[in-house]
Structures are given as structure tokens and as C-alpha cells.
Design brief:
Layout: H1 8-21, E1 30-31, H2 34-41, H3 45-57, E2 61-64, E3 68-71, H4 74-128, E4 134-136, E5 147-148, H5 149-152, H6 154-158, E6 161-167, E7 170-173, E8 180-181, E9 186-190, H7 193-204
Helix pairs in contact: 1-3, 1-4, 2-3
Protein name: Transcriptional regulator, GntR family
Keywords: DNA-binding, Transcription, Transcription regulation
Domain RCK C-terminal: 120-205
Amino acid sequence: MPKIKEPRYHKIAQEIAEAIVNKKFEVGQKLHARSTLAATFGVSAETARKAISVLADLDIVKVVHGSGVEVLSRERAREFLSQAKESRNLQETHSQIKALIAKQKEDLTNLDESFTLLLDQTQRVNQHNPMSPFEYIPDANSDKLNRSIGSLNIWQNTGATIIAVLHDEDLILSPGPYANIQPGDTIYFVGTEKTVEAIQQFFEGPSTN
């Protein structure tokens, strides 16, 4: 993520203001000419000029033509440094928030990819293992309840082969044709996706004798 770069002249203005706050430059003192300040801070004369202009606009210094730069206020220099620090903190916070948002987007993308992979793997497992059982709990109001599997002709009507019935906490494996399906029972069966729809329609539809 690109980082906001502070202009060089603004940094030089802060260094001069810090020197004023630390009393390296006293109020009323005449600073060196801008060309000398440029050499002192290792920048171009234009950069030094912009830095002085920033301080002059804030009445921290005053450019006296022909005699250099005069220091006007230590208090304003302190305020300038404080505002500059708050601005840096704000920029850092903004960058951190953008980084967090980018990370969240990346995490969501990874989650979506993982979920898609899971669905794909699940579909392949079902294709290679068609005997994976489905489960279904008939509605308590179904008129197919309290009747035996044989009398309901479930396989003939739906194509489903019932392999187990969970009644309360008892799992009945390979229930015979005389096993009753009661309210609250969970039916485990094998078949296709169409079989699932057929089971639902069978138990929810009108009675089949």
C-alpha cells in the first residue's frame, strides 16, 4: 500500500520550528540567509525558501529583506509542531484502517475460495459415493405416520431405500417392512437428489394406500 510522503520542505520547517522550541534559535534572533539554511540542512535553496514561507505564514518567523529571517514566536512554533504530529498520527491511523480493510477483503476472498472448494469436494464425494445417506424428519402432521414401511410402499413411491430409523435415542438399522414410522422419527435413506424431493412430496402430500 503506498505511503503518504511528507514534503521535504515541510520536514525542514519542522526542524527549524523544533530548534526554536528548544531555544537553539531565540525569539528576536536573526537566522542565516535562506541559502545558508539550505546548506545547513542539505537541501536546495528553493526547498529552504518554501520551508521559511511555511513558518512565515504561521507568524513563527518573519523574512526581513536584506537581513535574513527573524524568529517571532516560540509558542507558535510549538503549536505548529503539535499540529504536525497530530497530522502524522491521523495519516498513520488512516493507513492502518486501509490496511485492515484490505486484509479483511483478502480474508473474505480466501474464505469464499475455501467455501467454493468445499462445495466442489462435497459434490465430488457425492458423485463417487452415491450411497451416502440422506436424512429426513417427516412433519408431525403427516398422515403417513404411525404406519409400517411395507404398507407405505416407500421404495415403489419414491425410489428411496430406508437403511435406518432414529426413534427417540434408538437407532434401528435396516428396519424391516413391519417397522412403523412415528412422529419425531428421523428417516435415513439412500437414493438420488430426485429421491429427496420424492420423499418430501410423499410425506407432505395426500395419503397413498
